[in-house]
Amino acid sequence: MASNRLNQIDIKLLQALQVLIEEGSVTRAAERLHITQPAMSKTLQKLRDTFNDPLFTRTGQGLIPTPKTQQLSLRLPELLHQLYELVSEEGFNPAESRDRFRIATAEMISFTFFSPLVQSLFPIAPNMQIIESTLGESYLEDLASGKLDFTVHLTTSCPDGFHATPLASATAGCMMREDHPLSGSPQISMEEYLHYPHVRVYFSRMTLNDVGFVDQLLANIGKRRHIMFETTHANTAIDILRNTDCLMVGSSFSTTPDPASFGICERPFPPEIDFPELQFALIQHERTLNSPAHNWLKQQIVKSATNHMLRTPVQPFKN
Question: Which residues contact 270 (CB under 8 A, 6 or more apart)?
């Protein structure tokens, strides 16, 4: 039974295995653990009995790991680190952290969100690992199960068992290529806005009924735009804008700190479209609320978002 196998595991054996993997030599492993070579050989035999595998083969170049050991080497460092944190009385130390965090975002904000965050983490937590994934339909279930640690979403309200930390708010406007026929207009009329085809960048659960904000506002006044292309990839949408007369709802922070570098400009919506301010939040499950590592990273994310995502206004009209 699995429980009987677990009873055979000695943490010191796992530590010894990690040292053997790193050193590739019984002699050097013994020296590093401050034990005799015969004692190290006995430890290796215990490890072989525990895992029912030779673990290493001896060659002139040292110990060569078996496939079983290669598999163990991928998981063992993280496991030992987690066990250390479990029994450690010290607080979270980002400089030594090898924690792995999975964060899901809408692709439209990935560039602006992750690049500044990783830049800020690199000097203070160089061994931490951030894994990005695309925000999907099951993000709440994934947060609850541990498949995700955080998500960034256009909402500040959560169901029971989840917690939202406000990150940033930003205005939105009508995006288009710089030489678009409407780019010279300080104010776009509703007729002009609806005359051109549109690109829509979609992400899961973007609104309660999964209809874009502007489409809801248009429906409220009996209007409808023609969405020629829909995508989850912001870069694809930007490329289409650069090469067509399509329009897109967006904010400069969702593409690049400098939209003009992509040949894109932003203009205010027609007066009839009272577009709400975009409110972004960091969402987590309650299981991580008391985790020192998660709380530390949350602080860094809030700081990064405040510095790089907060309140990007629509660009003023220039002749």
Answer: 187, 188, 189, 190, 192, 193
